[in-house]
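Hey, I'm writing a tutorial for new members on how sequence and structure tokens pair up, and I'd like a real worked example in the thread rather than a made-up one. If someone can provide the structure for the chain below, I'll link this post from the tutorial.
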Amino acid sequence: MPNSSRVAVRPALLRYGIAFAAAALLASGCTAGAGGGGGGGDAGGTLLVNTSFVYSTLDPGQVYEQTGYLAIHSLYDSLMTFEGGDVSEPVPDLAESYEASDDGTTYTFTLRDGAVFSDGSPVTSEEVLFSLSRMQNLKASGANFFAGLSFSAPDDRTVVVTSDRPTAEVPALMAMPVSSVLNSEVARANGATDAADAAASDTAQSFLDGTSVGSGPYVLERNDPGNEIVLTANEAYQGEAPGYARVVIRNADAQNQQLSISRSAGAEIAIDVAGSLLEGLPETVRVSQVKDTLYMLYMNTDPAVSPATANPDWVAALRRSLDYEGLAAQFGQGGGRVGGFIADAYPGALPVEEGPVRDLDAAKASLAASGVGDTPVRFIYPAITYRGVDLGTVATKVQGDAAEAGIRLELTPLAMPAFLEEQRGGNVVLGFTPHALSYPRPESLVRQLSPGGVNAQRVRWSSGPAAEEVTGLADEALAAVDADALEQALAEWQHAMAAGSPYVPFAQNSGTVVSTADVVGADYTPAGWIVDLAAVKPGPV
């Protein structure tokens, strides 16, 4: 094996009996710290979780959407996890420790003793190997992040992950819900396979949609798509018992979530109450927020699509015309300005002081230099309310800011299906959407936005001096295995993107979890699963 360094990792504080205080960013002066509970018979009662359902399966190898992540994280363990709202460093879950080779291509995980599945059978490296190989061979959406990785299990307590390139992402990938570990014997008996042809031959999804076969703090009692998902405490769980014996995840729109939690006298969480919906809530509720979502404009670089957006001076004019303070204010509680292309929640975020600022005189000068004049530019956006914010209101603010510099934007709201279809076609002139990371590593954003990435392809950005510079800096960031080297590479990449890319980040917004007064530990996490349900406990009012 190449030269390696052992990473000292502490037990997952959240689940294995050590008290801690979550360090999530809290709003409204409310306190959502960790509370009592945990351990053996302390679990009791029912926790109600209201959210707008977005999921198609509870099969860990194929899960990809928000609600699925929320449930899977409580039903299954993985090698690594994240604590509370802190995604700066993954911590062990099924793993006890890991070693990383100096060249960042080999990661060796040692399993902790004593972990068992819900039927009492032991978790071994063979189960981990089966689960990861099955996920990869199913070729569902989540498998894309694991391209270039291979897995082996030299003994019962050891799992080796090998990458075909240097990377620092492996520990974070091992925390993703699609990396969850299944009881291979039960899964195989019900149609699961890790064979190379699993995408065609695996028939376990319907079974896994109704029965969990994991080692997590909960087991699946019922999955009623469109209505509710019910979890009950796993009696065989070897960690700290969850705070509630039963969790009911209920499908509800944001307005009904707001109404329900305003009137609730029990243990309740709302996941989609954000933006203006936070106004008027009782002072007793607890609000946990973390800035994890970036909002940015993107422009087509092909002059055949738009002579305006393909013109660097026109792009500079639009960038300088925006009132960044005013745009951040559109998002209300939890919103804020941006420093670069990475939201504050993630490693590599730049200070707000390094972000763009408005300069109308410079904007007018750049517009004059472009020679484009006041020809209207089509500006599309999804006609939705996201996290309590009407995106049409934000688009109107962008249009008004640009007009002050002499730029004419033609607002074109689209229903989500039409918006996505036009975006994928590569013919969008100018648009904007919320942008969150698929998993909590900034490298995922570097891949998506840099030339060659899916977002760059949609705006036809592949050549030119700026593209070449960004590509070189992206390669440096993706190959960095040292934390300091990665931070430096990400900073340089963001500065180059701000100077020459077809994107204009203009604000960021927070993910939000609202909970009733007698609930503690309901901390929002940008890890993907929104809130760790096992960490939520009854607490003092």
